[in-house]
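Quick question, first post here. What does this chain look like in 3D?
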Amino acid sequence: LATTTESLLATESTRSKVMPPGLPRCGEWLSYILLVGLGGALYPQAIQRIYAARSGRGLRLSLAVMAFLPLTTALIAVLVGVTALAHHPGLAGPESDRALTLVLNEIQHGSILGYWLVV
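> Answer (accepted):
Ran it through. C-alpha coordinates below.
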Protein backbone atom coordinates (compact mmCIF):
# COMPACT_ATOMS: atom_id res chain seq x y z
CA LEU A 1 0.00 0.00 0.00
CA ALA A 2 2.93 2.35 0.65
CA THR A 3 4.23 1.88 -2.90
CA THR A 4 0.78 2.56 -4.30
CA THR A 5 0.43 5.76 -2.28
CA GLU A 6 3.90 6.95 -3.29
CA SER A 7 3.20 6.39 -6.98
CA LEU A 8 -0.09 8.30 -6.71
CA LEU A 9 1.61 11.19 -4.90
CA ALA A 10 4.35 11.34 -7.55
CA THR A 11 2.17 12.82 -10.29
CA GLU A 12 0.14 16.00 -10.09
CA SER A 13 -2.91 14.50 -11.81
CA THR A 14 -3.39 11.75 -9.21
CA ARG A 15 -2.18 13.59 -6.09
CA SER A 16 -5.65 14.93 -5.30
CA LYS A 17 -7.04 11.38 -5.21
CA VAL A 18 -5.04 10.42 -2.12
CA MET A 19 -5.05 13.73 -0.26
CA PRO A 20 -7.73 14.49 2.35
CA PRO A 21 -10.69 16.41 0.92
CA GLY A 22 -11.02 20.16 1.33
CA LEU A 23 -13.85 21.79 3.25
CA PRO A 24 -16.30 21.90 0.29
CA ARG A 25 -15.90 18.15 -0.34
CA CYS A 26 -16.30 17.18 3.33
CA GLY A 27 -20.09 17.52 3.00
CA GLU A 28 -20.04 15.09 0.08
CA TRP A 29 -17.91 12.63 2.02
CA LEU A 30 -20.23 12.88 5.02
CA SER A 31 -23.25 12.17 2.82
CA TYR A 32 -21.47 9.12 1.33
CA ILE A 33 -20.64 7.83 4.80
CA LEU A 34 -24.23 8.25 5.95
CA LEU A 35 -25.59 6.65 2.78
CA VAL A 36 -23.30 3.62 3.07
CA GLY A 37 -24.00 3.34 6.81
CA LEU A 38 -27.76 3.42 6.38
CA GLY A 39 -27.65 1.25 3.28
CA GLY A 40 -25.64 -1.39 5.11
CA ALA A 41 -28.36 -1.68 7.73
CA LEU A 42 -30.99 -2.24 5.05
CA TYR A 43 -29.39 -5.19 3.28
CA PRO A 44 -32.06 -7.77 2.44
CA GLN A 45 -30.00 -10.48 4.10
CA ALA A 46 -29.93 -8.41 7.30
CA ILE A 47 -33.72 -8.33 7.34
CA GLN A 48 -33.83 -12.05 6.56
CA ARG A 49 -31.61 -12.71 9.58
CA ILE A 50 -34.43 -11.43 11.80
CA TYR A 51 -36.78 -14.10 10.48
CA ALA A 52 -34.18 -16.87 10.30
CA ALA A 53 -32.79 -16.46 13.81
CA ARG A 54 -33.46 -19.38 16.13
CA SER A 55 -32.94 -17.34 19.27
CA GLY A 56 -32.42 -13.80 20.46
CA ARG A 57 -28.77 -14.53 21.15
CA GLY A 58 -28.25 -15.83 17.61
CA LEU A 59 -29.94 -12.76 16.17
CA ARG A 60 -27.77 -10.38 18.21
CA LEU A 61 -24.62 -12.23 17.19
CA SER A 62 -25.49 -12.29 13.49
CA LEU A 63 -26.44 -8.60 13.46
CA ALA A 64 -23.21 -7.71 15.27
CA VAL A 65 -21.21 -9.56 12.62
CA MET A 66 -23.31 -7.96 9.88
CA ALA A 67 -22.38 -4.51 11.20
CA PHE A 68 -18.73 -5.06 10.22
CA LEU A 69 -18.98 -7.14 7.05
CA PRO A 70 -20.08 -4.26 4.77
CA LEU A 71 -17.13 -2.20 6.04
CA THR A 72 -14.77 -5.06 5.21
CA THR A 73 -16.07 -5.47 1.68
CA ALA A 74 -16.03 -1.71 1.13
CA LEU A 75 -12.42 -1.53 2.33
CA ILE A 76 -11.40 -4.29 -0.08
CA ALA A 77 -13.13 -2.49 -2.95
CA VAL A 78 -11.37 0.79 -2.12
CA LEU A 79 -7.96 -0.91 -1.85
CA VAL A 80 -8.43 -2.64 -5.21
CA GLY A 81 -9.53 0.64 -6.80
CA VAL A 82 -6.59 2.64 -5.44
CA THR A 83 -4.13 -0.10 -6.42
CA ALA A 84 -5.56 -0.24 -9.94
CA LEU A 85 -5.35 3.55 -10.17
CA ALA A 86 -1.66 3.47 -9.24
CA HIS A 87 -0.61 0.51 -11.37
CA HIS A 88 -2.94 0.99 -14.36
CA PRO A 89 -3.56 4.76 -14.64
CA GLY A 90 -4.94 4.62 -18.19
CA LEU A 91 -8.11 2.71 -17.32
CA ALA A 92 -11.22 4.69 -18.22
CA GLY A 93 -14.77 3.94 -19.24
CA PRO A 94 -15.51 0.28 -19.96
CA GLU A 95 -11.83 -0.63 -19.48
CA SER A 96 -12.11 0.27 -15.79
CA ASP A 97 -14.32 -2.80 -15.32
CA ARG A 98 -11.13 -4.85 -15.66
CA ALA A 99 -9.51 -3.25 -12.60
CA LEU A 100 -10.20 -6.17 -10.27
CA THR A 101 -8.90 -8.79 -12.69
CA LEU A 102 -5.76 -6.77 -13.40
CA VAL A 103 -4.98 -6.33 -9.71
CA LEU A 104 -5.68 -10.00 -8.96
CA ASN A 105 -3.42 -11.00 -11.86
CA GLU A 106 -0.57 -8.96 -10.35
CA ILE A 107 -1.14 -10.54 -6.94
CA GLN A 108 -1.31 -14.02 -8.43
CA HIS A 109 1.97 -13.66 -10.32
CA GLY A 110 3.75 -11.95 -7.40
CA SER A 111 4.34 -15.02 -5.22
CA ILE A 112 3.13 -18.51 -4.45
CA LEU A 113 1.11 -17.09 -1.55
CA GLY A 114 -0.49 -14.62 -3.95
CA TYR A 115 -1.28 -17.45 -6.32
CA TRP A 116 -3.12 -19.44 -3.65
CA LEU A 117 -4.80 -16.31 -2.31
CA VAL A 118 -6.32 -15.58 -5.71
CA VAL A 119 -7.09 -19.18 -6.63
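The chain has a mean pLDDT of 84.
Residues 21-67 form one domain.
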